[in-house]
Amino acid sequence: MCIFKFCFMWVVLVTCALLFQVLSCAKDVKVKKIDFICEECEKASDSNAAGKEDLGESISKDIQNPIIIEYESLKNELNVRTYEEMFEKALNFYSKGDIELAGKIFDVLAKNSPNQNYKEIALFNLAISLERMGNDVQAEKIYSELRKSNIYEIKADSYLRLARIKVSRGEEFSFEDGIIVDRERGSFVKALELLQETERILSEVVTFTVPVGVKFSSRLVAIKREISELKASQKIPEVQSMLSLCQGNIKFIEAALVPNYPPKEVEKKAKLLIEAQKEYFSVVRSGEIWWVTAGVFKLGETYRYLFENLVYSQPPPELKTDEERAIYREELMKELRRALKWAKDIYEKNINFAERLKFKNIWVSKSEQELKKIKEYILQIEQLLSVNEDTEKAN
Q1: Is 292 within 8 Å of 286 (Cβ atoms)?
Q2: What own/partner pairs with CB < 8 Å and gap ≥ 24 does 315-323 have?
Q3: Tally of CB atoms within 10 A around 58
Q4: How far apart are CA 244 and CA 235, in angstroms?
Q5: Where residue 343 falls among pLDDT bands split at 50, 70, 90?
Q6: Which of 112, 197, 313, 318 has CB 3.0 to 4.6 Å from 71, enough for a Cys bridge?
Q7: Residue 272: which pLDDT band, with cuts at 50, 70 and 90?
Q8: What percent of the chain has pLDDT over 70?
Q9: Between 66-78 and 83-95, two packed helices, what is the crossing angle to 10 degrees?
Q10: CA of 114: how far to CAs of 77, 83, 120, 193, 254, in Å?
Q11: In sequence order, which ranges of 133-236 are alpha helices (DSSP H)?
Q12: Is 79 helix (H, G, I), strand (E, B) or coil?
């Protein structure tokens, strides 16, 4: 019992120290400007200079169209004269954190594009804005359409962002050959594939849905090797973040496969959970905002898992009497309440961090969902412990 309590507290206290690192790192995270779109807009602008001269004339012909009226009204409101100037305004609003206004402008630009390339670039930026506002369903629809684009960068990045949404949501995504032809995006695909696989295995292990007779050891060894090779060959920050999440998931899986008895096994489980948490913290330090929220969420999940795994475990067999088992359960509940409060704090910090940056994605939505569940768990435990205290006083 004492050894169990020591191991449990070890996990809590080490994470307590690490949590301060999360907060200090999170403050320094910067929102990145959309590099690719600025570049492509410039290319499209150069190749379609003649189209710009005819734009005013085409607008005057279609002025009765309500979409055109909205476009003209927005031009006046923003004090711009051309499509390109309005596009630059939208990018400026996005970089300053006014995502809703940027999205509105991108939407109007997409509906009033002088050519297909401009339309696709505006739609791509609209999808990014929707994604950042938490509307991943609508963003997903746009990315799906843009996979048909003739612009390789638009097609490839839409494919990758669509895959990222699906994998983060926990849905199975079938990666196709031939879509990604450059090395950097290829490494992104490989990292996403590894993340999808480790997420699936982890889900099966922690929810006890592992098919009978399935062994993960050989596959985990192979995944570790693939991660190591990819980490050494690619230094792209977002790829590194995904690979660190994979490494954290592997440690989490290994911890979940360890039984809760005898005490030496509990100690082993605690060490593995701490190693998983350290990998998730390394994601936070990377500063890639999508994966920062993922890393913080996964940290909260280690505590939620600890609660759900131990609360249903059988008392140690050396406890022979009902009184001994009752005392054990009460002490266990007190320690698990502490873990749940850590999970609650972590989920809340993830949500608040995202709100400060005006950012919302699937990982933030998951944090909101799990926070509700954790609050209910805490309420149930406090009610149970309160009943036990009242019973003791009565006796």
Answers
A1: yes
A2: 316/1, 316/4, 316/261, 316/262, 317/261, 319/1
A3: 12
A4: 12
A5: very high
A6: 112
A7: very high
A8: 78
A9: 60
A10: 20, 9, 11, 38, 55
A11: 136-146, 152-169, 183-206, 217-233
A12: coil
Task: Say if CB 340 and CB 309 are below 8 A apart.
Answer: no
Contacts of 216 (CB under 8 A, 6+ apart): 201, 205, 253, 257
Question: Domains in the chain, please, with CATH?
Answer: 2-30+182-390 (no CATH), 35-169 (1.25.40.10)
- Burial (CB < 10 A; 0-12, 13-18, 19+), residue 387, is exposed
The least confident of 27-31, 98-102, 379-383 is: 27-31
Find out whether 202 and 253 touch, Cβ atoms under 8 Å.
Answer: yes
Mean pLDDT in the chain? 82
Task: Identify the pLDDT of residue 44.
Answer: 35
Contacts of 305 (CB under 8 A, 6+ apart): 206, 252, 256
298 burial (CB, 10 Å; 0-12 / 13-18 / 19+) is buried
Least Cα distance to 305 among 333, 343, 334, 275 occurs for: 343
Those residues with Cβ within 8 angstroms of residue 365's Cβ, 6 or more apart along the chain or in another chain:
134
How many C-beta atoms lie closer than 10 Å to residue 393's C-beta?
A: 7
Contact 19, 11 (CB under 8 A): no
| d(C-alpha 94, C-alpha 113), whole Å | 19
pLDDT(386) > 90: no
Mean pLDDT of 107-127: 93
Amino acid (one-letter) located at 19? L
What single-letter amino acid sits at 364?
A: V
Q: Helix or strand or coil: residue 99? A: helix
Token digits for 203?
A: 């889900």
Whole-angstrom distance, CA of residue 216 vs CA of residue 224 = 12
**Above 70 in pLDDT, residue 380?**
yes
What is the pTM (predicted TM-score) of this model?
A: 0.82
CA–CA distance, 123 with 111 (Å, rounded to integer):
9
